[in-house]
Write a structure and sequence with these properties.
With about 500 residues, the protein is of the alpha+beta class. The protein has two domains: about 90 residues, no CATH class; about 350 residues, Cytochrome p450, CATH 1.10.630. About 45% of the residues lie in helices and about 10% in strands. The strands form five sheets. A four-stranded mixed β-sheet has the order 1-2-9-6. It has a three-stranded antiparallel β-sheet with strand order 5-13-10. A hairpin with a 6-residue loop joins strand 7 and strand 8. Helix 7 crosses helix 8 and helix 11 crosses helix 16. It is globular and about 85 Å long.
Length: about 500
Amino acid sequence: MWLLLPILVYSLIYLYVRHIYSYWRRKGFPGETTAFSWRYLKQFYRREFRHVEAICEAYHQGRDRLHGIYCFFRPVLLVRNPELAGNILQQSNGHFSECKWDYVKGYRRFNLLEKLSPMFSSRRLSPMFNNAQHVAQHMMQHLLDREQQGNVELDLQRLLRIYAVNMMGNLVYGLDVNNFEQTDHILNSYVQHPSQYGMLQSFTLRGTPQDSRLSSRLKDLIKQNVELREQSGIMRKDMLQLLVKFRNGNDLASDKWQVDHAFATEEDKLMSVKRLAKVAEDLLHSALDSIASTITMTLYEIAQQPLIVEKLQTEIKELNFVDGQLTFEQLEELKYMEMCLKETLRKYPPVPIIERICRKSYTLPGTKFSIGEGKTLMVPLLAIQRDGKYFGEPLKYKPLRFLHDKSQDIGQRRSAFVGFGIGGAQCAAQNFAKMVIKLALVKLLQNYHLELDASATVEVSHLPAPFISSKGGLKVQLKARAILTQSNYLKSSKQI
């Protein structure tokens, strides 16, 4: 009798697992062939906890526009067609959850990111550009100091993470921070290597509460700055100023930076200080890795192709600098740099996979299939943009592929390039990111030649943004260019 109990338990577990792994077959979706064995369970386990490369493999195994796969015990619908993916994300109309930016005020529920999108327009970013150049100058002064000490070898990835942290601290948190010197600043916690603070990429653990001590300290910084701007009338042209304007019911689309009117009580304000601090922290988390990784991977690729570097330096030299400084509008003149940026985003997308959880049953446009509530829909951006069907020689870095396209499938290729997002999942802050990225590239290429450490083995991983996982990061040697002397450089730095 006692022998029957474990047999019954094991039989129920077997039937339950078999039921899960037959989900897509039962729903009529094209999907992978599954078999209940340890080999398949290990494969699905890998997708759950280290899923970027595993999802790319699943993409190449599929043949249809939709491909049902399994991430451990979770059925996931892979959208392999970029046009279909764009249609789904544009036309879903609230069927997929985006809880991070959902906001409730009174009886209204809306997407906060849509309300804040005017912050990232060119008209708003242009006045911030002087502050951005001030932050870039901290990086250049740091390099000059190291050059004077005879130390020209460094980890470029770490340098650019500090630059990105400084930029987010100045423009989002309203702090005149320089982590090249202030190594004990709270934002310096984000400078560390990506693998040190994000070891798991897991569907199962995505809802696990994170350590909130750092969040609490960032909230205190926001609270202090918000009080200064609301009560003392301090005004600074940055993202925080626009968040304060929105919090007090001001129109973000107007040209004014001052808070025209403020609600008297905290209850009347459109956004609490706690929610504002959460928005700032979300921007910090999402933009930091994207900005730092895109600059790093661009420099890593072009450093291996001297001809590309020469073209970029020639393009930068043709700009009309005023007292050694750029204007925001001049960034638009860097056409070849824009192509290089697109090629980096194609080969190393900051978000390699878009994931959405279905909140209510949704019929996929142009198909007979419906995805059920609670099921995961996934768009494998990295795999699509490295598919030879859309881009010839996808693993080669070829910026000129974006110069023109004479192929017959031009529309298909355009839809395959995602860049900073696709359809309804486009990054609202992409103009801000481009400004910060191009500014760093201009400053570094204008002043230095970059030489990779030939003896170092460079490995690129995704966690999820691409980063150099090799020991020591991305080791480079910097050599000052003769076109800009040290005295001229110091003169320009004093004028900022």
